[in-house]
Amino acid sequence: MALPQELLLSDLLKLRVRCDQGLEHGAGLVGWMHPPVHRLLGWASKPSAFGGRRLVWRLNQLRGLSELEAMVDGEPAETDQSILDGLPTLFEAALTGAEGTVLGSVVDAAVELRTGRILHYLVARSDPRLPGSSRWRLTPERIVDQQPGRVATALVGLDDLPLARSSVRQQLLRRSRRWRDQVSEETSRLRGQFQQVGDRFEERLEGWLEEPPWQDAGEDPADSRRWDEPEFPEPEDRRSRRPRDLDPLDDWEETDWPEPDPPEARPDARPRQRQDPEPDPWV
After folding, report:
1. Which residue has the higher pLDDT, 158 or 177?
2. What angle do CA 43, 45, 48 make, to 5 degrees?
């Protein structure tokens, strides 16, 4: 398998080393670097679970990568754990901010495999061995000073660095922030639509209130006929002769109507029979 252009040191240390003779030399243990120039020189592997024997491989000996193995060419340099512990390194160093407070620790690095140049470091706030913890990118240009076990920067907090990998908590916070922003945008949009509908309704209502209810649309108010004016006006001479205060019932003649006949004079009337009062039962 061809080598990628860049690789995380943690991914390289997970692979088991196999040489060109087909022998396996154990998994990676620690990186070997030169801190002043921020360059990775190689890495060390642990061939056996027992003993302090360690094998150091140069980065230019790497020939290929597979899913579980790293193929190398040539012989390694043998050493022990005490010598590896004395090598200068920035890995697992404490990262301090502008006020000297500890912000996290340097736990990983992205390396250009062709030259060994460290592109950026990865910083963890908590224990890097915890699964799902966040990682922030720290470029070498942001490092102000470096000492054994300490890397000084001018950062106020880790939020000043770009986030390389978010933890479950960071993902929940980011998703909740994004959902809150989306809900706020949707609420603002709906509020604007309701405001537009309300303004249109208010304009139409004001227009309806200004127009008379008896006037049709497009009708000229000067041509509209008043309801109290008659359709066919009387002639001027008749209106002048008719007194305004005259009651039409004053000219009523009662003799014009015949009086009704009494009941006795009607031919179909029957004589009334006098009825005696009922006798008193006590007499």
Report:
1. 158
2. 170
